[in-house]
Every structure is written in structure tokens, then in C-alpha cells.
Amino acid sequence: MNATSGSSPAARPAGALLLCRAEPAAVRPPAQLLREQLLLAPAGTEWSVVIPEGKPWLHGGEPVERVVTGWATALAVSAATWPVLALWWDADRAGFTLAAGFRRTVGYTWLADGTPVGEDEAMRTFAARLALDPVLDVQALEALTRPDSDADAHARLVGLAAVLARVGLVLPTGLTPGETADRLRSVALAQGAEQLEWSGWRDAVRAELDAVEGGPFGPYLRGPRARLLGAAQLGAGLPLLAWGIGRRSGGWTAAGALLVVHGALGLVYDRLRGP
């Protein structure tokens, strides 16, 4: 595997991509509730990519990994039916975090020069949660955990995206993991990415309820299971929101707020739409 970046790893600024295994229409409502500057674009069959338009990790003093892990966790718990993969990188490291429902997140990290510092078991768990081929795809992932003097952290992320291409991921042309946040933004906008704008709680609630009503799982999001899921989201979101506010953590505060709102909406939906 050859490194694909023309700049030295140490000079590469922080950036991130969120890969959601769902169509943009399903991703849009919960992503808007994050109240962040984000771009949304399709990324292959049943995949979407969310590109941070702003750079909150530069203003709040948090590392990019923590910010996007909070976002991915909130989106995945809110969705419940599709996972979210956060790819992130900065001057020193790069890696990924996979969030799927209420399961514990799984991640892996490489140093800037490509040196693996994660646990091999994380790759196997990653493959299982995304229903990748247990032989061919796992072999390709395990190659990313072995030393390779020709592969820096940028190349590792590109290799990870290549494995996901086997399950339908097709990133828009030029939207390459490891590039600067400004370049990702300009490339996404040039290819027609949608800007997700916060339009207020009333419109957000309406959009969320419309998404639930019109989605494939709409008829099943009522009754005991719906109430259990809403209560679980509130139970996870309230302490997370308090913790984020106490730590002045923008990423985790947004994650907690999203879970609280989504859980409350689920309970309201069940009460209003139920028999």
C-alpha cells in the first residue's frame, strides 16, 4: 500500500467525515438536530456522508476525535437502525469510531506515520457490525493493522474506505479521507452537497416526525418498543448533556441534546400517533 498524500503527515490539519449507512433523507433530520454547520451528500448505495462545514475542534479546545465521536454516537442512537462511522485525523494521529445503536463504540487509531496503535479485535468487531465478509474483508482490514513503512495514516483511511466500497460505499469524487477540512468542504459544495441549516426547534420537530411517519419503520415505532427506545434515549442523553455542559464539551453537549430531543420526540410520537 502506498501513501497517497503529497504533504507530510505532521503538516496535515485536523478533519473528519461521518459515513452513515442510510440514505440522505433518513440522515437529514437527526443531523440537523446537532445544530452544527454540516454538509450532506449521498455516498453510494444506502450510504450518506456528512462533512463538517465548520471546525468546532478549533474553537472549543477539544480534539477532533472526541468531537466527531460524540456526533456519531448521537446519530447512531437516534437512528437505532443504521450505524455511523466517524473517520478523523489530525497532525499526530488518524482513526475511526463506529457507533451502532446503544452498543459500545469501537475504534482504531494509527499514528501519523501509519504505525498501528489499536487492538486487532476492534477490526473484527468492526467487520461484524457492518456485516462485512468474515474472510476476504476481514483479511483486508487486518492488513491495515500490520506495520507498513509505505503507508501513512492518510493511506490507512483510504484503505479502510476501499474495503467499505465492497458494501456499497462510494465517496463523491475528490472527497478523500485525510484532506484538509477546507478542501473537503469546497469539493462537497462543488458536487452539490446539501447544507444542513438549523431552522429552529419547531421545524426540526416537524421534520423529525415526518421522517418517522414516512420511513420504512414508521408503522412499527409505536407501542412498548417505541416507549422503551424513547426512554432509553432520554436516560442516556440527560447525563451526557449534563456531563458535556460541565466539561464545556461542544461535541458531547450536542450529542446529549440530540438524544434528549430524539427520545422526547419518540415518546410524543407514540402518544400522539398510537391507538
Give an overview in words.
- This protein has 275 residues and is of the alpha+beta class.
- The chain folds into two domains: 9-195, no CATH class; 217-273.
- Helix content is 48%, strand content 14%.
- It contains ten helices and seven strands.
- It has helices spanning 24-32, 56-59, 64-79, 120-129, 136-143, 153-164, 181-190, 201-214, 224-247, 250-273, and strands at 15-20, 38-42, 48-52, 84-89, 93-99, 106-111, 194-196.
- It has a seven-stranded antiparallel sheet, sandwiched between helices.
- Strand 2 and strand 3 form a beta hairpin.
- Helix 1 (24-32) packs antiparallel against helix 8 (201-214).
- The longest helix is centred in the last third of the chain and has 24 residues, at 224-247.
- It is globular, with a radius of gyration of 18 Å.
- The protein starts with 14 loop residues before the first strand and ends with a helix.
- The model is unreliable at 1-11 and 214-220 (pLDDT under 50).
Shape: globular
Number of helices: 10
What summary fits the major beta sheet?
7 strands, antiparallel
* C-alpha termini separation: 58 Å
| Number of E-type strands | 7
Could you say which structural class the secondary elements and strand pairing correspond to? alpha+beta
List descriptors:
275 residues, alpha+beta, 7 strands, 2 domains, seven-stranded antiparallel beta sheet, 10 helices, disordered N terminus, 14% strand
